[in-house]
Amino acid sequence: MKIKILWADDEIDLLKPHILFLESKGYEVVSVNNGSSAVDKNREDNFDIIFLDENMPGISGLDALVTIKMEKPYVPVVMITKSEEEHIMEEAIGSNIADYLIKPVHPNQILLAIKKNLDKSKLVSQTTNSNYQKDFKELGMQLNSDLDIAGWNEVYEKLVYWELKLEGIDDSGMLEILNMQKKEANTQFSKFIDENYLKWLNGVEERPQMVHTLFKDCIHPALDHASPFVLVIDNLRYDQWKILRPLFSKYYSIPKEEVVYSILPTATQYARNAFFAGLMPSEIAKKYPDLWLDEDAEGSKNKNEAALLEHQLARLGRDIKWSYNKITNLDAGKKLVDNFNKLLDNNLNVIVWNFVDMLSHARTDMEVIRELADDESAYRSLTLSWFEHSPLYEIIKKCAESGRKLIVTTDHGTVRVNSPVKIIGDRGTNTNLRYKVGRSLSYKEKDVFQIKDPAEGYLPKSSLSSEFVFAKENDFFVYPNNYNHFVKHFTNTFQHGGVSLEEVLIPYVELEPKSAKGATGESTAAADLVSSRNVSRFKRPGRK
To answer: Could you list the residue range(s) of the whole structural domain that residue 67 is in?
Structure first.
C-alpha cells in the first residue's frame, strides 16, 4: 500500500516538480491550496503525513493545524513557512508538529521529513541492530578476558545501554541475543565476585568504591562546599536510574555518574545500614550493639539508620545541622513536600524513599502488579510512571529551584530470578530467597557463593557454626519440601540478597542545579549532560 500524503499550500501549482518527485518515489500525493480544504480532506480520507503551509488565505496553516490535531492527533504534520519568526515556530511546536521546514524547500528535504516520521522506527531498528551486532563481538571478547573492576563496570554499562536501546525496536530476536549475553556476563561476574570479594574486604590494594564507605569517600567531601540533598532510593537498579535520568536532567546537569558496589548480602538490612553507619555489618554489631538487629530479631532491621548516620557524622568530625526522613507511603511524601522549605536551613538532608523496594516485593505477592510488570521493560516503565507522578518528583524540582546539589544513590539492586536451587536448613535459617544464613546448611557448592566464616565477610556471627551462602546469577533458593509450589510462585519474580550484576552494581550520581545559586553562594552552570560512562574510582581498603 502506497504512503498517502496531503500537501496544503496556496502556491501548490509552483510545487508541481516536488509532487512529481515524490510520486516517482512511490508516494501518493493529494494537494490542496487552502487551510479549509486541508481540514476537509483530512476528515474525508486517511493520510500518513500532512505538509501544511503556515501562511494561507482564509484558515491559516496554524489554525488548520489545531483542527487537524484535534480530530486526528496521531497523524504527523510538517509545518512549512517563509517566516522564521520565533513566535510562529513556538506556536507550531506547541501544537505538536512533527517537523518544521523553511521555504524554499528542496525535494530531498521533503523526502527526509517523510522518512524521519514514517520510516523512523524501521530505520532506528536497522541501525540499532547493526550497531549492536558490532558491539556484540566486542562484548563477547571482553567477557572472555580477565576483566578488572573498571572492565566489569564498562561491560555492565554497555549491557544496560543496549537493553534500553533494543527494547524500543520491533525486532525481539536481538533482545533475546542480548539476554543470552547478559546471562553469560552474570556467570562470569559471579566468578569474579567469588575470586575477589573477600580480598577487597581484607587487605588488597585496590577495590571498588563500595557502599559502606560511600558516604565517607564521596558525600563527606561534598559537605565542604555544598549543602546537598542525599536521596537514597531503596533497591534502585542501574537500568532504572537510566530511565529516570532524563527527568532529572530537565533541572540538573550531571557532572558525576558512576557505578559503585553494594555489599553482601545485597539486602536492605545489611547494605543500607552499612551505608549509614560507614561500617560493615559485623562492625556495627560490635561497635553499636544496641543499633543492630540480627536476622531473627523482631521488627524493622533498619529502624536505626538516623542514629547510625549521627555516629558516622561524629566520627567524621561533622558538627552540622542535618535531617533524616524515611518515606514509606504517599502521605509521608506529600507531607515532606509541604515542609520542604524547612529543610533548607540544614547543611545536609538525607531522604530514604522505599517505593521501588516495595514495588519489587508487591510484584511477588500481588498478581495484578505481576501482570503490570510482566518483564524487565514493564518493570522499568512502572518505575518511571510512579516517579513522574510521585511527591518525590516534586521534591526534585524544589531542590533544583533552591539551587541545592543533589546526590542520588541506593543500597542494592534486584534481579529477576528463574532458576530454582535446592537448599536445606534448620528452623533458624532465614527466609530470603537469594541468601541463607544458618547452621548445618546443605547445598551444592558449585551453585552458590560461600562465606563459611562470617568474620571474613564482616558479617555478624550468630553461632560458631553459622555461615552465609548466596545465590548467583538468576538462581533462587527453594527447600525440597513443597518444592513445586514455591518454584511456581517465585519464578520470574524480582529478588535481592545474592550475587548478580543487577544487585551488586548500583548507581551513584551527583547533580548540580541548572539555575539559581546554591545555599553556599556558588554559581551552578547549566552544563550539558556528560557521558555516564565514567570509569569507577578505586579505593584502598582502609578498614575502620
So the answer is: 4-118
* Total count of domains within the chain: 4
Is the pTM value of this prediction over 0.85? Answer: no
Is there a contact between 281 and 294 (Cβ–Cβ < 8 Å)? no
Whose cell is 530476536? That residue is: 173
Residue recorded with cell 535520568: 245
User: Are residues 422 and 478 in contact, defined by beta-carbon separation less than 8 angstroms?
Assistant: yes
Residue 86 sits in a domain whose CATH number is 3.40.50.2300
Exposed, middle or buried by CB within 10 Å (0-12, 13-18, 19+), for 298? Answer: exposed
**Buried/exposed 170-192: b ≥16 CB within 10 Å, e otherwise:** eeeebbebbeebbeebbebbbeb
Residue type, 451: I
pLDDT at 353: 93
Q: Cell numbers at residue 18, please?
A: 516536488
Could you tell me how many helices (H) and strands (E) the chain has, helices first? 22, 20
CA 452, CA 519: separation in Å to the nearest integer? 49
Domain edge (last residue) among 167, 201, 235: 201
Residue 282 maps to a domain: yes
Averaged pLDDT in 10-residue chunks for the chain of 544 residues: 89 90 92 92 93 87 88 89 68 71 88 83 72 85 91 95 83 83 95 96 88 97 95 94 95 95 96 97 96 86 95 96 95 95 96 86 73 80 90 96 96 95 88 91 93 94 84 94 89 94 97 66 34 34 36
Q: Are residues 102 and 247 in the same domain?
A: no
* C-beta of residue 188 within 8 angstroms of C-beta of residue 147: yes
Dihedrals phi, psi of 79, to nearest 5 degrees = -85, 135
**How are beta strands 348-353 and 229-233 bridged, if at all?**
parallel
